[in-house]
Amino acid sequence: MNKDDFNKITINSSNLDLDNFNSSKFKIDLNRVAFIFIVIFIIIILYSTRIIYLSSKTFEKRIYISNQINRADITDRNGNYVSKSVLTTNVGIDPKLVKDKEKLLIKLQYTFPKQNISEIKKKLYGKKFFYIQKQVTPERFEKIKLLGEKSIRLEPKITRIYPDKNLFSHLLGQIDNDNNGISGIEKTFDNKLKDGRKQLVLTLDKELQFIIRNELLNAQNVFKNIGGTGILMNVNNGEILSLVSIPDFDLNQRKSISDRKYINRATKGVYELGSVFKTFTIAAGLNYGLISSNDMFMNLEKKMKCGGRIISEYDEDLPKDLTVEDILINSSNIGSVKIGQIIGKKKMKEFLGLIGILNKMEFDIEEVGMPLPFTWNDCKLKTVSYGHGITTTPLQLAKGYAILSNGGYQVNPTLIKKKYDISKRKKILNSDVSAKINPILRKVVTNGTASLSDVEGYEIGGKTGTAQLVENGLYTNKKINTFASVFPISDPKYVLVILLEDTKLSKDYVYKYRNKPGSFEGTPFNTAGWTSVEIAGKIIDKIGPILATKY
Amino acid sequence: MKKYVLVFIIFFLVITTSIIKNSTRELENKIFNSNEKIKILINRKEIIKLQNDYLRSPQRLFEFKNKFLDNLEVIELSKFKHLSQNE
């Protein structure tokens, strides 16, 4: 706009009615705008405050609908559950909240047909809260919910289930009502299990465990023994594939077990095991280079004195001249004593300590027995040489045989599956001990006292041991029959120990010879060769194909 | 004027942050619910596996064997014929 144009602008004063200008009207218009603006502003502020408030609020407590089980499951090496926590429900009634008691009774009769209704009726007319049934199944739980009764109280509870009942009773142990492990693996790994994050995988195999338990129960029917145990262990990494002790008990019943007959014989039972120790005596001699397999012992006496007792041969017809190999194959007591005397107290003690026989062993469960301590003297050396006057547990025996047969490497028996680096094994015996002892163990089976376990195709090697059971510090006529076997002997993989306690002769049992045709009826002698060896053979018959194909 | 712009920007950022936080929480809730559903399904799977483990346990199979397969014979190892590669 230039100056000329500006001059052209004229104001028509007639159009402005300045005299009658209503300033209040203008104010009202202005206030309306301001009012609308303020309202909108307040709404924005309110919404903003709300958004800020919502965002600043801490997260509300979440409602967990999945069950919060805080004890991890335990599985066998193949992932089968052996112990599992499940959510169950306890059902109770608060009589004060019941409106129509007769109607409720009819409903309960329908829902709990096995319950004693007259008992429930009695409690229903009382005042105290009472349980109708504990640990109801999910199906029944749904039925109870459908009753729609306010007086029925449903209390969720975590229950530990052992689907295999007795099968792993001595190993798994039990938990108390507060979810605390009180024995076995449940106790040792209590903190880890309570953590609840990861399953605990065991080295055990359910199928092998079942077969071995079944055969031990069959043996109990035949030989009427009061108990027994079976241990199957990998000789190279110490993994226990099966550990059975009978009699056993059903873990689901949650009974307090105090009777001594239910002890875990494999780990807690401390026994004098007899001739199975002769293998250790010979292995000690071979390890220290004091004897060799073909060394001949001439003119062996038939009897020998030891602390007022007589040591004699079980078989009086044994030849007077025996090689080291013959001494083990024929289970010569006198021959073993002679070898023991060559080794001496110091080295014998050192060797037995080295293979873990003398002291309490560390294991994955607390129920471990302590071998009885004794003082070493000349007579003790003699008796120890053939397995008397010295005690240990069957698991320690299995460990000893594993070390002797696996090339002399240290082995720690375990129930927990973990990565194991075989190259990091510690060698504790001379290499040639296994190479020399394994063929002799094989000959004990082919030519000696363990021929009933010579299962074709599995190259079993082993040693029998028959000892008298010690009760209250005194020897009894009861027998402890043990067979420690290793197979396949050309490349040892497994050690199987079978121990039967207080066996009796069977008149009707039929033995089938393995290395020749024919059979034999009745147990002629109450020795390991006719009891434990027979059972070990039957077990290997069944587990052999599984081990050969599965592992 | 600058002050107004600054106040507006701060106000805008606060509101935007709040909106984002709210939507994040919604997402977290959805994730939580999904996790809960997964847990329930895992529990269900475990219960079914437990039933399966029990039903196919050696004990049960032996019971069935004794009940239905009484005539089943165990073949001795010696009766198996060894086949050489040429056969």
**Helix-strand pattern of chain B:** HH
The greatest interface between two protein chains, and residues involved on each side, is: A-B, 30 and 27 residues
- Helical proportion of chain A, percent range: 25-40%
Largest sheet of chain B: none
- Overall geometry of chain B: rod-shaped
Principal-axis shape of chain A: elongated
- Whole-number total of structural domains of chain A: 2
Q: Can you tell me the CATH architecture of the largest domain in chain A?
A: 3-Layer(aba) Sandwich
Tally of DSSP β-strands of chain A: 18
Name of the CATH superfamily of the largest domain in chain A: DD-peptidase/beta-lactamase superfamily
Largest sheet of chain A: 5 strands, mixed
The low-pLDDT segments of chain B are none
What structural category characterises the helix and strand content of chain A?
A: alpha+beta
**What is the distance, rounded to the nearest whole angstrom, between the alpha carbons of the first and last residues of chain A?**
104 Å
Please report the number of helical segments of chain A: 17
Q: Radius of gyration of chain A, Cα only, in angstroms?
A: 40 Å
Our estimate of the beta-strand percent of chain B is under 5%
Name the helicity range of chain B.
over 70%
What does this structure look like?
- The complex is a heterodimer of chains A (551) and B (87).
- By secondary structure, chain A is of the alpha+beta class.
- Chain A folds into two domains: 88-159, Penicillin-binding protein 2a (Domain 2), CATH 3.90.1310; 208-550, Beta-lactamase, CATH 3.40.710.10.
- Chain A has 17 helices and 18 strands.
- In chain A, the strands form six sheets. In chain A, strands 1, 2, 3, 4 and 5 form a five-stranded mixed β-sheet that branches.
- The longest helix of chain A has 34 residues, at 23-56.
- The mean pLDDT of chain A is 88.
- The N and C termini of chain B lie far apart (101 Å).
- Chain B has two helices and no strands.
- Chain B has 87 residues and is mainly alpha-helical.
- Chains A and B meet through helix 2, strand 2 and helix 9 of A and helix 1 and helix 2 of B.
